[in-house]
Amino acid sequence: MSFRAALAAATARHESMLCVGLDPEPAKFPLSWRGDERRILDFCAAIVDATADLVCAFKPQIAHFAAARAEEALERLVQHIHQRAPGVPVILDAKRGDIGSTAAMYAREAFRRYRADALTLSPFMGLDSLEPYSALAEGGAYAGKGLILLCRTSNPGGSDLQAQRLEGGEPLFERVARLAATEWPQRLGGSELGLVVGATYPDEIARVRALAPTLPLLIPGVGAQGGDAAATVHAGWRADGPIVVNASRAVLFAGGDAPEMAAFANAARAAALALREQLQQSLPTARA
Q1: C-alpha pair distances (Å), 246 with each of 103, 127, 167, 265
Q2: Is pLDDT at 265 greater than 90 in this prediction?
Q3: CATH architecture of the domain with residue range 3-282
Q4: Catalytic residue among 28, 59, 95, 145
Q5: Is-catalytic flag, 95?
């Protein structure tokens, strides 16, 4: 199943726009596991088990595993997600951005080693930095994979470049959205593109949605970063334009100083359920 098809099916099946980001920080684990990097897989698997029926996607962040020499744990975690939550797509958050053989190795890492369904990428080196991940690459082996491009990120410093206007007056982030919606898919063999747009900028979400009416939008920043769930849905959701609203810390570490993982997982489920419901209640049909 392609990334778009899997996303649509999981969204409908679980009535959810919520993506849980898997960014393990052992210093914030339950007290009985706190600081123990050997528990990264156990921790993330327990979060997956607790929230598998509440999400449209999971998004492991590669640096949180690599920094702890836990790449094998990441491989096993993706396998666990595919087994425990079949049909729920895995978005590998790596924000890769390079060309040539280096990009080809990154693509092989994401799609062959980790078996991700989609990958976050930086498009700022241009089209040829995306080609090694495309449906045309590796003899068509990556057909159906999602390529989710940084567009308007949630951090304050994103404006340093993304909001700068090009010669014709168009902000850079709008140019990325326009290319992703028009020229690039055809030149990438029909690859399934999406865009990253931060929840902290709802006006920019609306502008990106106007330029790319049907592309999936991966929207971080709701929860710990202060993005508003209702404003995010209002700006980005369309019946034929899905949104994937990511929450990481607000779900992962809702358990605070709970001593055991069972209580931590229960707290994560409660936080995910509350956010899922908040997002669903913001849909136009729910408001009507």
Answers
A1: 25, 26, 33, 18
A2: yes
A3: Alpha-Beta Barrel (3.20)
A4: 95
A5: yes
